[in-house]
Write a structure and sequence with these properties.
The chain is an alpha/beta fold. It is built from eight helices and seven strands; from the N terminus they run βαβαβαβαββαβααα. Strand 5 and strand 6 form a beta hairpin.
Length: 212
């Protein structure tokens, strides 16, 4: 099964505000873009992924991610994360109604293609499925097999909300790179310890507070 991933990305100047203790206002946009570029590059290298659609209105991010091979979808609803994901999935399925789709966070800079493939293979057994984040509170991946709606419910306690919506929680070992999203300085340190992509590594090296 070949998946289309839908990745949402808010305007870079508003991204990753919770990293303020680690990265200043002038640095965070570039760091958020590095996260997204490493995430998209790893996703496109995954053998289970046919293509990636990034939902964003950020012109710079759109240019950089399109250069990697992602399809850029304008965030026409402009009504938050879940509306952006629903819109992206609808755009994808307008031309390919039988494609399996998955919503993936844009802040997975340690993402490993083969670990993502394992998660998607497991998810393909269910109409809808999700993977909890490393904190076991949020969600990093939500999937919908052909003929089933995505029904994203990201945000506070999205793990519980996705479970309540009927999505099956995936229990897999050795897929930490797919769980390790980055919202805080501690998250970034954990991702760096796991091993991040080249763009994030370069951006993080310019943050002396990390002690690199």
């Amino acid at each position: 099964m070949q998946w289309t991933l839908v990745i949402p990305l808010k305007p870079l100047n508003r991204a990753k505000s919770r990293l303020s203790d680690t990265a200043g206002d002038g640095v965070r946009p570039g760091l958020a873009l590095a996260f997204a570029m490493d995430t998209v590059a790893a996703a496109l290298a995954c053998p289970a992924v046919a293509d990636v659609a990034v939902v964003t209105d950020d012109a710079e991010a759109g240019r950089e991610l399109a250069a990697l091979g992602a399809r850029i979808v304008a965030d026409e609803p402009r009504a938050g994360l879940n509306a952006a994901l629903a819109h992206g999935a609808a755009v994808v399925r307008a031309s390919r109604p039988r494609t399996p789709v998955a919503a993936l966070n844009a802040d997975l800079p340690a993402l490993r293609p083969m670990e993502l493939a394992r998660v998607l293979e497991a998810a393909g057994q269910f109409p809808r499925a999700f993977l909890a984040d490393s904190a076991a509170v949020g969600t990093t991946l939500l999937t919908a097999s052909p003929g089933h709606p995505l029904l994203p419910a990201f945000g506070t306690d999205s793990r519980g909300r996705h479970r309540a919506s009927g999505a099956v929680e995936l229990s897999l070992d050795a897929v930490e790179s797919v769980r390790r999203d980055v919202d805080t300085g501690d998250d970034l340190r954990a991702a760096l310890a796991l091993g991040v992509g080249p763009r994030t590594a370069a951006a993080a090296a310019r943050l002396p507070v990390l002690g690199q």
